[in-house]
Amino acid sequence: VKVAVDLAACECHGQCEIVAPTVFKLEDETNLSWDAAPPESAREDAEAAVVMCPTQAITVAD
Ligand code: SF4
User: Fold this and answer.
1) Is 35 helix (H, G, I), strand (E, B) or coil?
2) What confidence tens digit (pLDDT) does each residue in 13-61 have?
3) Which of 20, 5, 12 is nearest to 58 (CA)?
4) For residue 57, how far is its CA from the centre of ligand 1 (angstroms)?
């Protein structure tokens, strides 16, 4: 699974980390890090993060 985040759109509220903690990690209030190529088992959580993100900053692809 490929995960991308548009950092220009991300507002670092951390909803993605709540639904997909194995993929996303808010380092601090302005710094999001994430696994750009998580295992297939993380797909469902990553797709939930796409839906939860208030700024539509996350993209999940194959
Ligand atoms: S949910 Fe979206 S806006 Fe919030 S930290 Fe994650 S990527 Fe950024």
Assistant:
1) coil
2) 999 999 999 999 999 999 999 999 999 999 999 999 999 999 999 999 9
3) 5
4) 6
